[in-house]
Amino acid sequence: MSSSTLLTYTSKGLYCPAADVYIDPHKPVTKALITHGHSDHAIIGHRYYLCTPLTSAIIKFRLGSFIQVQSINFGESVMINNVKFSFHPAGHIPGSAQIRIEFKGEVWVVTGDYKTEIDRVSGAFELIRCNTLVTETTFALPIYQWKPQSMIIEDILTWYQDNLEAGHSSVLLAYALGKSQRIIASIPEEIPIYVHGTVDNTNDVLISAGLKLRSSIKVSSRVSKKDIQKGITIAPSSVLNTPWIRSLQEPVTATASGWMTLNRSRKKQAADFGFALSDHVDWNALIAVVKGCGADHIWLTHGYTTDFSRWLTSIGISSHCIERGNKTIDIDNLTEED
Amino acid sequence: MPREEIIPFLKIVLGFKHTALVTIKKLISWCTDYKELPDWMLITCHATTGDWVETLSLVLGNPDLAQNTEKEFLIILDKINFFRISKNEEELKSWLLTEWGQRSPEELYLIFKLITGNIKSIISKQITANLLHELFVTDPLLLRHRLNELHSEELTYEQLMKNSWSVNELKSKPYPFIEPEEIALSSYHFGDIEHWIVEPFLHGTRIQIHRSDSGVKIRNDDQDLVGIQETEILREFNLLPVDTVIDVLYNGEVSNHYFILDIHRWNEKEKTELGSLLNRKEIISSWLHSYQIIHLQLLPHNDLSSLRKVTLDSKENRIIKNIHDDRRYRIKPEASRMYAAVMYAEYINQNTSIQYVITLGIYNEDKQLMPLTKISSDQLPGTDKNELNYWIQNNTIQKFGPVRVVRSGKIMCIAYDRIQLNKRVKSGIALINVKVIQILNQSAGKNPISSITEISISKKDQDI
Q: Structure pTM?
């Protein structure tokens, strides 16, 4: 089978005709292989879902417990119509996976969203040798080069200490699934962590599914504002300008997102500060993955596809954009899912 | 910090333009050579960031390095000052090539901003002046003035901190009413110009004085205007307390041609007709009681029969309102004044506010109005602003976008500090520190709008 037919891009998403399955389809299909639980990858309406156990718990919580999900552990493989599928850690969020597809000696890898830097909750990214790589390009420009996570956490702790001394509550705005848990796991035990209800519910689901996470306290009327002021509060960005955040003691807000690298994003956002903490692969790591996987051909999705494709062509790597044009970035409405 | 570094440091934090050591175009070419990136890639990055310096610092900076301390900042400043003196571009390039692998993006951002002369102010001049004043007790107004002139002359630290105005500095001393001071009003204050009526009761004789923008108006008991005495003193007397006015009137400290007193029989009139003026009369009467009758003999007396021929026209040259209802502003005594007509009004947001900018015009040689200066409605008190807004809405001739062309029926008396020739404005003249003193209605007979010829004459006077 030629490489052009093992996977194709249809109006419903990436499709494997040989196995009759879709990968992260964005319209309802019969069989869907899900890389991770973010809402742009796992939508409601598929008949059967196949994903890792953590992702299974997440999508059951988010989409409803009635959905039919089959779990598969990292490294295990499943044969569908003689096509071999296996899931491997992607390091994006808890339970996130790359999907390896093997058919008649040819190997394709669909990365989904991924990052190569190791954190305490998302697992270590596994570099898989393949013939064709389908990779995301959310931050595929040389201006996006992440600082080490330890440095960003240091910045966050300095910001928290300053707020503490000034009598402000520190509210860190982060995506409820993935980023929040990554931050919670990185903050030292002696600093109390308070979380918004959405983050707390997600934490409960992940902990019950086997994720080891330090304790956090849900913000409620039972918790005093003075206690909250002494800790770091983690909440989704939707709480900005709501009574929930106004009920805290002189809150100071900061957004944790890869988009905060740019001055214009930091200025345009509604929060007071920004920390460039991303769950996606940056420029240098993306090039390392592309070169390291040994793929002859690269398929590009999500983000700066045409620019990265042009760059790959200029260094002699064959590539193909499976979504036309560059994504239009709306800085006002960015989430880490983007 | 050493004293010799204070002035360069101040220039940086205040955002004064530096001479670029290297153009941004050259910097981009060095970057593309070093990083082996195609030009189009940097252009794409620039489209995302919107700033070349930020783009280059993010591409070239080493994200694994932490941002260094203030000490590093001073080292960078030293190095850049060295290149500013040596002007050796090759040395600068080789230094940069070694630096940008070893610096964090934040540090590179600062370096690039400095060497391309593209740094914005970090702190305002006013705050800087206040800070220096607190530290070194130099006059903050003087410091503010010198910080303004920092770009034009090579000031030393000692010159900056010297606590006295030089002759040259005095010539361009800032206009004092930029920051208005509130003046405490006397309890015997007469009130607004419009209502200022002196009615002392002296041995059965009533004295009645009215003032207007064009001088002193005298009215009889029937409220007929019986005379106008032209005077150039407009506002100053409005601020005087009762006792001072009486001093002026009876002791002749100011030439009495400023005042004409209409004296006639008091007892023939009903007191109730005077309304609220009675209280004022009593106050003034009690003060006048201590004065000698003999002083009255010095005052001129008017022939009532001739004065009654002039009828009162309340619309004529009426002052709409004193511009300062609750605050009174000190006016620089030597401030020049002129009359200009409202030509255009530009609304900042027509839907939600009445913030607008008015273009004022004066006559050119052909007696046609030409735009001269602009004032913001911010400097008008609320009542005047609303009234003027209402007038503009009702007198709009034409609209284009947010701009309205209005009838030339509203004249303003404006004060200004000085005149500068400026080729970029239509009139060729720019007024410095324009303030509105009064808003007038255009009278039928009078047209006090100034002309370009008058302004040119005053410019010559100013230069002399």
A: 0.61
